[in-house]
Amino acid sequence: MDKKQHSKSTASESSSPSTINKSKESSSTTAAASLPTTTTSRNAVLPQTARRILQNFLLVWLDANLQESDNDFKNSLQHLRKIVASITTFTDAQQCVNFLSEIKKEKVFMIVSGSLGRQIVPEIEALPQLEAIYVFCGNQSVHDQWAKKISKVKGVYTKIEPICQGLEIDRQRCDQAMIPVSFNGRDALFMYTQLLKEALLEIEDDDVKSIKDLVEYCRLQDDIDEDEIKKVQREYRNQTPIWWYTAPYFMYSMLNRGLREMDVDIILKMGFFIRHLHQDITELHREQQGNMPTNFQVFRGQGLSMEDFEKMKKTKGGLMSFNNFLSTSRNREISFKTFARPAALNTNSVGILFVMNIDTGICTKSSTPFAEVSKVGYYKDKEEEILFSTHAIFRIDRIERIPDNHCDRLYEVTLTIVGNDNHELNTLTAHLREKSTWATGWARFGYILIKLGEPAKAEQLYQMLIEKAPSDKDRADYNHQLGWVYYNMGQYSKALLYYEKSLDIYKKILSPNGLIRSFMKKQQLWICTTDHLVLVVFIDAHQI
Question: Which domains does the chain have, with CATH numbers?
Answer without folding.
Answer: 17-177 (3.40.50.2300), 181-432 (3.90.176.10), 455-543 (1.25.40)
